[in-house]
What does this fold into?
Amino acid sequence: MTLTLCLVLTPGYVTPSFEYSLDGGRTWVPITSTYLAPGDLDPKPVAEVAYTTHTAIWNAKAQIPEVYSSTTKIRVTVDDREAANNLSQAVSANFILDTKNPTRGIPPFSINASVSPAQLTINASDNSLFQMRIGFQSDLSDASWEDYSNSKTISLPSGSSVTLYYKYRDIYGNITPIFSATTPEKPVGFIIQDTSNLTASPVKY
It folds into this structure.
């Protein structure tokens, strides 16, 4: 996330600080240097006759992972260190902050390989629009992003068992790890056994 601040005319330097709110400004939490780019909290030079623009970068996903809020605000405070009237603040309008990865449902993924092409049932959700990527390579290099759908057909390669790989991402760039699902192996050399009457002959067919 990029925060752009126009600093008010003050000779010398001002020191910025940043806070966020997830409830429309009722409560505020400091954004510390751990989650900002190097130098974002350093004193900033300002001109005497013109506005000076400085940019700070906040790693919101690292500070508050798995959060969705449509009433997020950012508050920027600048301090010119003078004896009086040394503080000035600016507060953003509400905006959406989404650091949540899409979530798999239960069951997350199923493959019906008894039909051709195979039928996939995909169970996932997110607060925002999201996409899916499904392929046969473990790094998904053979697949492209497509809009999420809870069903999809796919042609399976020949073989007794096939593994599909998949992951999700939402419109805010939250991406899941790569997951996998494997079709059952085709039964080979199976028998049918009558266990209701073991004295019968034969008991296996």
Remarks:
- The two ends are 67 Å apart (CA to CA).
- The longest strand covers residues 68-79.
- The chain has a mean pLDDT of 88.
